[in-house]
Amino acid sequence: MSVPTRRRRWFTVCALTASAALVAIPPSAASGRGGVSPFGVRTLGQLAKERVQSVGAMSPHLKADDDDGNEADEIAEGADQYAEARTSPGVVAPGAYGAAWRDLRNLPSTDGRWRHITGLPYNSDDPRYRDIDSNSSGGSGNVTGRMAAIAADDGGYVYAGSAGGGVWRSRSGGGHWQPISDRLPAQSTGALALDGGGRLWLGTGEATTNADAYLGSGVYVLSHPHHGTFSPRRRVGGDELESTTIHELRFGGGKVWAATSAGVWSHSTKKLSGPWKLEFAPNPDYLPGGSKAGDPSAPYKNIANDIAIDPKDPSKVVLAVGWRSGDDYNGFYTETGGTWTRITSGLGDLPGDADNVGNVTFARSADGSRYYAIEQSPEQLNTNPDSGLEGIFVSKSGSPTGPWTKIADYKGLAADNSALTSPGYMPGVQAWYNQFLTVDPSDPQHVYAGLEEVYETKDGGADWSTVGPYWNFTFSCWSIDPAKQTGDCHQTTHSDQHGVAIGRYHGKSFVYVGNDGGVYKRPADGSQDASGHATDWTSLNDGTIDTLQYYSVGIGKDLDHGGLSVTGGLQDNGQSVLRGNDKVMGSNFGGDGGDTLTDPANGCNIAEEYVYLAVQVTQNCAVNDGSWTTDASKATSYGVAPPDNATSEARFIAPLATDLKNGSTWIAGGRHIWVQTHGYAIRSGSEWTSVHDFGAGRVATAVAASGGKIYAAWCGPCNNQGFARGIAVGNADGTGWHDITLPVDGTVPNRYLSGFAVDPKNADHVFLAVNGFSRHWTEGPGAGVGHVFESTDGGTTWKDVSVNLPDVPTDSALVTADGGLAVATDLGVVYRAPGRTTWQRVGDLPAVAVLQLKTSPDGGTLYAATHGRGIYTIRLRDLD
Question: Cβ distance 547 to 145 under 8 Å?
């Protein structure tokens, strides 16, 4: 079979950190064999077509609070939804997470210690799993979770800042990592930078404006980064930058400059106490304390992306400011006569008008002779189906004021042996999300640029090479042969680039890149093949660094090897599978892995959700040697998506569960509640039956069942414009369905309902987890209080049992066999012992989100799926 006909899942991403309604995507092909993917998912070609179709609905001047969306594609739609759970129906005020972390740390702790079980290599090209919807053989090799920033020095020290799992240090030029920020109240990295004195600066709060990006707690300094760890006591300034995201930290004139989601700020690099100074906010009324701080569009109104400081005169500074989808304030600004003024002329090829200034990244050569810039254009994003990239530019004067000359555009990059050559999905299609730029310190014309792929020029932009292609599937060197990683192609990096640094180890210069799959390196002046692809990438994701972002976890007995098989769905890294005798985890499904169902009696009976209820099932762990490419009957996984997948009437990560009393009965939630009773033997989406319809505009947020009784929560609208939620209860056979009347007195808050936990001994006894923050932090009508509620009458009435539970978003809950209650929150796990009413903190996890809890087949061990630090276990008997 030729490469173009090969059916692949793509490494999807999530986007958008603050709530805004988005336009739904046209549905993709239904499941089944024939000429489409059996999973019914959006391959690159399908997604490209959808983006072409959706562009006409976009507006270059679309405001963040408009009800008809920003990017009308799958990427941005999923982006919104992760944030909605935490923000709707209002806007979260600054300080919410910091207060929650302090309260959580003050809770009494249970006995017992967490055991980390995913601290080993995760091979995305594992040759055991070359089934139809795996990305194995793509060429990414060992992966981990998303890296937002990288820093490196000339002594072999490398620092990797992850999206949700903190900052890590390597003393050996990459690899053998150690976490160095676990004591901080925020594990989300926005920026890392080494100053001239060798100090390491950390800006917390990932600024890629994607869905699962968490706000930060400010800027911290590590004076001796070769040996120390970050401490809350080393925060720079006061709380001015708490609950912001930080895109870049730049140095000049004795100051550190921070480009944040709340404007541009500066601070002395000598005296670290004292407040940060607000240098420029284009719309200050929307900042905390301002007259419009509660407006739903407030998070979009003061976004700063980068700062360029003139090397010849540090008093001359250029700010790149603007929301990626467009706003009137977008542009470049410089200070004139004490006032920040938009630059309207003299930039040369670099557009400076509001329509064309979105996300921007600057890079300066070490000798000060050149400045470079990547510019994403809101107008291109909203009107061009192929790319949102305006271009890559150089200022040969060395001044950030230019004049600038364009040295690359998306068409030229695509022609340089890129893997992204299909109309509708070309280089820079996600330039608002994927950007990095750096200049070789030894050569001002040697530049690395990151978008979805990694590009290199050695002549100042006259010629470019795609040294890190998106993947190898589209190239003639590719082969699915399990005896090889990727056929005759060389290893590439994971897709979706975010951070870059050039450092030295043992006297040799290396470039380090951070992306949705972790950290990779190659010699800075490395080798290329005839296509311009690098031949010398090395994955640094050696298993000592685990920043995997799990949405789910599943556990079952490994009948082939003994012990247990543990699986889990991941952001942009598919589904991991860890068998009983594994020393390396494999990846049996690609793309975004959502919810996971695993047969406790047989860990190779697995159902994995991609997105929008695109469910895939396997009964052999999806083990396959790739023979399905020539004989479709040899595929070992099957697309069994419920019909709501075809109409896109489901959440990006939609709820999927089995009945506690009958593992062959599955419940899936979209607009409808779907039930199927064939368990892992299901082979078609037609085997699902709709037992309840929430109605147009409503979608399920949580489902649970026991003994045929189903609890289902919904929202619609799900954003903060008219947010509504509710609960319906009924039976798996379709009888008895009714809506629960939730009192307007706030007994159950008007916030996102994220999970149910049914008592295994009594189906009428159920707990409800509520996301978001209480009225103290959420500026919106009906925010209410409380996070955990209990019903003993089948959901008819509810009682708040939060008691001393900190005010922190709760994501799921689980009733243990002895009647205890474990709750997963955005900052760890809490536990209420049987017969007690108060809560304890479970173990000592860092400030990482835990999205799902499951127990082992014997009920004795609790498994926690964290969104940034892998999977952990703890024995339940140790908690009491």
Answer: yes
Picking from 572, 586, 595, 587, the residue whose alpha carbon sits closest to that of residue 146 is 572
DSSP class of residue 414 equals: H
β-sheet with 596-599: strand ranges across: 596-599, 602-609, 615-618, 637-639
Task: Give the Cα separation of 352 and 589 in Å (integer).
Answer: 43
Contact at 8 Å (CB) between 729 and 714? no
- In angstroms, the CA 320 to CA 304 distance is 6
Please name the residue that has the structure tokens 């800006």: 203
Rounded Cα distance, 189 and 166, in Å: 7
- How many whole angstroms separate alpha carbon 71 and alpha carbon 424? 13
What are the backbone angles phi and psi of residue 705, rounded to the nearest 5°?
Answer: -150, 150
Q: 3-class SS at 627? A: helix
**Could you give the CA distance from residue 101 to residue 206 in angstroms, rounded to a whole number?**
18
Q: How does pLDDT run across 353-377, given as a tens digit for each residue?
A: 999 999 999 999 999 999 999 999 9
Helix (H) or strand (E) holding 338: none
Cα 587 to Cα 142: distance, rounded to the nearest angstrom? 10
Euclidean distance between CA atoms 247 and 308, whole angstroms: 13
Backbone φ and ψ of 25, nearest 5°: -85, 145
User: Distance (Å, rounded) from C-alpha 188 to C-alpha 205?
Assistant: 5
pLDDT tens digits for range 869-879: 999 999 999 99
User: Could you tell me if 654 and 596 are in contact, meaning their C-beta atoms sit under 8 angstroms apart?
Assistant: no
| C-beta separation of 849 from 811 below 8 A | yes
CA 93, 94, 100, 102 torsion: positive or negative?
negative
What are the strands, taking DSSP E only, across 601-644? Answer: 602-609, 615-618, 637-639
- The residues, ordered by sequence, that sit 6+ positions from 345 with a Cβ below 8 Å of its Cβ are none
Q: Note the pLDDT tens digit of each residue in 384-438.
A: 999 999 999 999 999 999 999 999 999 999 999 999 999 999 999 999 999 999 9
| Region of residue 613 (left: phi > 0; alpha: psi -120 to 50; beta: else) | left
Q: CB–CB of 730/710 below 8 Å? A: yes
Q: What tokens does 528 get?
A: 């290329």
Contacts of 113 (CB under 8 A, 6+ apart): 843, 844, 874, 878
CB 122 within 8 A of CB 541: yes
Q: Is 196:251 a contact under the CB 8 Å cutoff?
A: yes
Collapsed DSSP state (helix, strand, coil) of residue 478: coil
What is the distance, to the nearest Å, from the Cα of residue 55 to the centroid of all Cα atoms in its chain? 24
C-alpha 443/C-alpha 460 separation (Å) is 9
| β partners of residue 277 | 266
Dihedral angle over CA of 444, 500, 332, 430, nearest 10? 120
In terms of pTM, does the model score above 0.85?
yes
- Cβ neighbours of residue 100 closer than 8 Å, sequence gap 6 or more: 773, 806, 807, 808, 826, 827
Q: What is the pLDDT of residue 210?
A: 66
